[in-house]
Amino acid sequence: MPLDHSDQKLIAPTREAAEAALRAFAPRMGKRYTNGRNYDRGPGLHGDVSMLSPYLRRRLLLEQDAIEIAVREHGAEAAEKFIQEVIWRGYFKGWMERRPIVWDQYREGLIRDLAAVDRDRGLRRRVAAAEAGQTGLDCFDSWAEELVDTGYLHNYARMWFASIWIFTLELPWRLGADFFFRHLLDGDPASNTLGWRWVAGLHTRGKPYHAQAWNIAKFTENRFNPRPAELAEVVEGLESEEPEGLPNVTPLRTLPVPNPDRPTAFLMTEEDCRLEDFDLSALNFVGYATLSASHLRSPLPVSSLVEEFEDGALRDTASRIAPDATGLRAGVPTDLSRWASRLGATQIATPYIPTGPLRDWMIEAKRDLEEAGIDLVEWRRDWDSAIWPYATAGFFKVKKQIPAILQKTGLL
Predict the structure, then answer these.
(1) C-alpha span between 123 and 120 (Å, rounded)
(2) Distance (Å, whole) CA 159 – CA 172
(3) The domain at 15-97+386-408 falls in which architecture?
(4) Sheet holding 347-351: strands in order across?
(5) Which of 172, 232, 242 is nearest to 206 (CA)?
(6) Could you report the per-residue pLDDT of 39-88, keeping only the tens digit for each?
(7) Which are the contacts of 316, defined by CB distance < 8 A and separation ≥ 6?
(8) Measured over all CA atoms, what is the biggest interatomic distance in the chain, rounded to whole angstroms?
(9) CATH of 263-379, one of 3.60.15.10, 3.40.190.10, 3.40.50.620, 2.60.40.1940
(10) Is 6's pLDDT higher than 80?
(11) Which of 96, 98, 250, 335 has the least CB density, counted as fewest CB within 10 Å?
(12) Distances (CA, A) of 28 to 32, 61, 79, 236, 360
């Protein structure tokens, strides 16, 4: 199971760059991807993986676009592994939508862990050494440096890193997830949180991921060759942290239908930057705004690489929809209702905001919107509606439905 793919720094956060990157990787979506995707060849040499996830995460590039070109270039069978990796993202998002309390528990647990770091000088030193790449374990330290410098880690390196963080260094898993979330260009609340939970044995309960020396040596082509004694020889999942087991599955949120007769303010966020796909002509827009929110990822400072990528993606989105859009920052939640009220809007429309930090902020903002008589309406993409009903257990349940999902969305 992957955590999720990412990208190198200094890539352009635009739809044009996303589509160019998709075209460039298309010849490698078949056999080369299948055979090479697990190899971490080092910074600047990750040519066997797509590097598309910062675009997919913000929907500057759509998942179905990536799958469509893979099927066209290689056929569904030859591109099976690539297709599955793309659908993992939708599975994780859907799983979190069906169990949003898991996100709440993560955020609450993170606050407790950060308080423990403040109290415990020894823990504080150990966490700081891990984040600075100063543990003395060469592979781990190199991955920490690559993550901070580039906003990227190879998929396999993410799993090894998380396993070593949890089982070898014996650090709280949520602090590691927060470290990733603050630095990954493709950081996604569902993929990141559930990926760390998977490594810890909390997602697929009783099956933690064990980073082993031989595996690291093989899939880094001996770039790293740790001694077995340097890594935890036995790992046990953290199920005891959650003795009650996984929470029950909940229904997907029912979305109100936008009223075409009401004066509407349009809100652009990094959750969906392909707004041309929606029928905007059907609504009466009186104003537009971008809302930057990547700083909400953590109580700690978020990487400047992440914030700059988000800002660039929002500027690119606005340039295609409304070049004179107002720039908002998710700060005091009442700011949103004040902006909409100044426009005379009684409705704010935006693409779907999934479970995560921005959703938390919007829940607070909705209280003031309701007092001001302003409704928030969202669109959910057909792609999500095709995958999320199956995202109730492990990935296998979604995997079995991939042919039906591709058929339903017109990709087969």
Answers:
(1) 5
(2) 15
(3) Alpha Horseshoe (1.25)
(4) 326-329, 284-292, 263-268, 347-351, 375-379
(5) 242
(6) 999 999 999 999 999 999 999 999 999 999 999 999 999 999 999 999 99
(7) 13, 14, 15, 60, 273
(8) 68
(9) 3.40.50.620
(10) no
(11) 250
(12) 5, 17, 9, 37, 38
Where b means 16+ CB within 10 Å and e means fewer, 8-42 reads beebbbbbebbeebbeebbebbbeebbeebbbbbe
Q: In the predicted model, what is the mean pLDDT of residues 187-209?
A: 96
The segment(s) of the chain belonging to CATH 3.40.50.620 are 263-379
- Tell me, what amino acid is at 49? V
Q: Average pLDDT of the chain?
A: 95
The topology (CATH level 3) of 100-241 is: DNA Cyclobutane Dipyrimidine Photolyase, subunit A; domain 3 (1.10.579)
350 has which bridge partners?
Answer: 378
Q: Does pLDDT of 412 surpass 90? A: no
pTM here is 0.95
Q: What is the pLDDT of residue 11?
A: 80
Q: pLDDT by residue (tens digit) across 320-365? A: 999 999 999 999 999 999 999 999 999 999 999 999 999 999 999 9
User: What pLDDT was estimated at residue 356?
Assistant: 98
CA distances from 82 to 76, 89, 335, 412 (A): 9, 12, 42, 15
Q: What angle do CA 205, 360, 338 make, to 5 degrees?
A: 170
| Contact call for residues 256 and 340 (beta carbons, < 8 A) | no
- Measure Cα distances from 410 to 228, 309, 406 in Å: 48, 31, 6
Q: What is the pLDDT of residue 10?
A: 52
Is the dihedral angle over the CA atoms 177, 399, 45, 199 positive or is it negative? positive
Rounded CA separation 193/106 (Å)? 8
